Amino acid sequence: MRIWSIHPKYLDSKGLVALWREALLARNVLEGKTVGYRNHPQLDRFKNSQNPVNAINQYLGHVYSEAVDRHYNFNCNKFEKPKISFLLTVSEGQIIFEFGHLLCKLKSREFDLYQKLKGTKTILPHPMFKIVKGEIEDWEIV
């Protein structure tokens, strides 16, 4: 499971669709609707929020917005509009790690996008995350 901390605009079509599916799975896990993935470390940041289901719904809302911008046909009925909006934090090291991980994937499957992104100086986070100083997050499997 990869629930990206980087902005979904960096993802290629396969990556965005995969993110949508993974985040929907995460929503099912946080709602207690599935027994698999309950202890997946990437869910910790949502579990540790004040309202985990609201947090994943907010996350999905931003992924959905990116899909709409690209004229994809994602189903908005798969998540609920969050009741409140808030920011979670993500470390600068995590953002750098994830962007490098994405570049490795893009180099082999979407070389034109890789070429476009490889010189990126400022990496934007997913809109619900605020970047803080720090190394790769403890929940990341390296």
Question: What features would you describe in this structure?
Answer:
It is a single chain. This protein is mainly α and 142 residues long. The protein has one domain (8-132). It has helices spanning 13-30, 44-47, 52-69, 92-109, 111-117; strands at 88-91, 129-132. A two-stranded parallel sheet has the order 1-2. Helix 1 runs antiparallel to helix 3 and helix 4 runs antiparallel to helix 5 (111-117).
Q: Structural class of the helices, strands and pairings?
A: mainly alpha
Number of strands: 2
Mean pLDDT: 94
Poorly predicted segments:
none
Tell me roughly what share of residues is in helical segments.
40-55%
Number of H/I helices: 5
Sheet bearing the most strands, described?
Answer: 2 strands, parallel
Q: Tell me, what's the shape?
A: globular
Number of domains: 1
Strand content: 5-15%
- Rg of Cα set: 15 Å
Terminal Cα separation, in Å? 13 Å
Strand order of the largest sheet: 1-2
Order of helices and strands: HHHEHHE
Main attributes?
142 residues, mainly alpha, two-stranded parallel sheet, 5 helices, 2 strands, globular
What would you say about this model in short?
The protein is mostly helical and 142 residues long.
